[in-house]
Amino acid sequence: MITKRIIACLDVHGGRVVKGVQFVDIVDAGDPAALAARHAREGADEIVLLDITATHEGRQTLLDTVRRTARELFIPFAVGGGIRSAEDAAQVFQAGADKVSVNSAALADPALIDAIGRSFGAQAVVVAIDARRDPQAADPVREAQVFVQGGRKLTGRRVVEWAREAEARGAGEILLTSMDADGTRAGFDCELTAAVSESVSIPVIASGGAGTVAHFTDVFARGKADAALAASIFHFGVSSARSLKEELRRAGVSVRLPC
Amino acid sequence: MRVTVIDYKAGNLTSVRKALRHLGAEVEVTGGDLALVDAADRLVLPGVGHFAASARLDATGLTPAIRAAIARGVPFLGICVGMQWLYAGSSEAPQQPSLAHFAEQCTRFLASKEKIPHVGWNSLEARPGSRLLAGVEQGEFVYFTHSYKAPVTAATAAITQYIEPFAAAVERGNVMGVQFHPEKSGDTGLKILRNFLLWEGKGIA
User: Nearest 5 degrees, angle CA A25-CA B15-CA A57?
Assistant: First the structure.
C-alpha cells in the first residue's frame, strides 16, 4: 500500500542549516550533511534542502553542500533555492540531488519546467508554490494568490490554474506552502491543499502550519495531501520522523514503518 | 566487484553510481563504448523518464551488445525504465523496439481516483526463492516513481499493489529488473543492490 511521506526540510544559508529540524545532541547542529543523515536514520521518507542564500557566490557553496549531503544519503533528496535555469538544475543533479524544486524562476519563465523535465524526467521537477487565500475572489481558496520572493511579491497567478499549468508542463510534484498557515502552528490549510490536490494528478506536498500530530492526520485525510513537510517537528513534542509516523499509524494513516 | 553502468542519457546516474560504490563496487560508466559492455562482469541499466529514451541504445549499438552479454550469462539489472526495456515494449512509446527478453508489454496505470504517477514508498510482496530479494521481508518498503508498469507473470519476483497489482521486480536466470529505485530505497534498496552484486551463477534461463 502506498504510504504518506514525511519530508524533513532543511533551510540552508551559506552552507549552514539556519532553520528546520535541529537535534540538540548533534555535535555540529548546523551541518546539513550531518542533519540529513540523522533524519534519514530517524525515519524521514525524503529530505528537502532549501538554499536561501541565493547569491552568485553562494552557488558554489550550495553545490559543495549538496555533494556532501548526498554522499551517504540513500533516500530521495530534493534541492531548491536559486535554480534559475536548466544549467543550474543540471549542476545540482550532478552534485547528487534527485529532484530540484523551482519557484520564482518557473513563474518568471514557465518553460523552465519543460526544459528540466525534458532533460531529467518529470519525476525530477518539483514546482514550489507559495499561496495566500484571496478574500476578494469568487473562490478565495481555488483562486488563492501566488507569491514569490518569500511572499513579498504578487505574481497575478491563481493557485489552481498555476498548479495545473505546472503539471501540464511536466512537473512531477507540487510543493504547496500556505502563507496564511505558515508559522502559525495552527494546522495546515487543508482546504487549499485539497483544492490543489484534487485539481492535479501529480502528488502534492503540503507545507506550512503544522503544530501537532493531529494536523498531519488532518492534512492527509481532509487535505488529500500525498506528503507533508515537517520543518520543525520538535516544536510540537515528537522526537523524530519515526515517532511522528508511529503516532500517524495509530491514527490510521498509512506510513512507512518500520523505517 | 566490478559493475558497468550503461548511460543512455535517461536521467541522472549519480545516485545509482553512488549506491553501488557505497557497497564496495568498482563502477565504470559507458555511454556507447561497446568494448566495456563486452568485457563487463555485471551490467546495470538505470533510467528514469520516457521509454523513448531507450532509442539511444539502438542508435549506439548497445542493444546487441547487451543481448550478447546476457546470453553469456553476465548478471544484468534494469532499474525503472531499464526494467521496462527488458519487456517487448511499452504503450508509452509503441514504436520503440526494446529487448523483448520478457514477452509482455508494459502499460500505463489504469485511470482511477488514485494519482498517476505512482510516487512514494510502497511495499513489496517478494516471491519465495527470489535471489535478488533474498533477505527482504514481506511488506518492506521501497521508493517508486513511474506511470507505466509491467504485468505480473511467472517471472515476477515481487508484486506491489497500486491501482492494480504490478511487477515491482522481475527475475529469470541472470536477468533482473526492479521498477522501484533501490538506490533511493534506504537499507532495503541497498540490500537488493548487494544481492545483485553478489549474485553468482550463469545462464540459468
Answer: 70
Residues A216-233: pLDDT tens digits? 999 999 999 999 998 766
Task: Mark whether A31 is an active-site residue.
Answer: no
Q: What pLDDT is attached to residue A198?
A: 98
Residue numbers of A between 80 and 139 with CB closer than 8 Å to B: 93-96, 98, 120-124
For A53-70, the pLDDT digits (tens) are: 766 667 888 999 999 999
For the segment(s) B2-198, the CATH number from 3.40.50.880, 3.90.650.10, 3.40.50.300, 3.90.226.10 is 3.40.50.880
B183 is catalytic: yes
Q: Give me the architecture of the A5-250 domain, per CATH.
A: Alpha-Beta Barrel (3.20)
DSSP state, residue B136: P
Using the Cβ of B48 and the Cβ atoms of chain A, whether some distance falls under 8 Å is answered with yes
B65 has a chain A CB within 8 A of its CB? no
Query: Is B11's CB within 8 Å of A75's CB?
Result: no
Q: Is A174's Cβ below 8 Å from some Cβ in B?
A: no
Q: How far is A52 from chain B (nearest CA, A)?
A: 24
Place A25 in a pLDDT band, splitting at 50, 70 and 90: low
How confident is chain B (205 residues) per 10-residue block, as mean pLDDT?
A: 89 90 96 94 90 89 96 96 96 93 97 94 95 96 97 98 98 97 97 95 45
pTM of the model: 0.95
Catalytic option among A98, A114, A130, A182: A130
Alpha-carbon distance of B86 to B177, in angstroms, equals 8
Are B184 and A74 inside 8 Å of each other by CB?
A: yes
ipTM > 0.90, yes or no: yes
Q: Does A3 touch chain B (CB under 8 A)?
A: yes
CB contact under 8 A, A226 and B185: no
Q: Give the distance from residue B72's alpha carbon to the nearest chain A alpha carbon, in angstroms.
A: 32
**Active-site residue flag, B50:** no
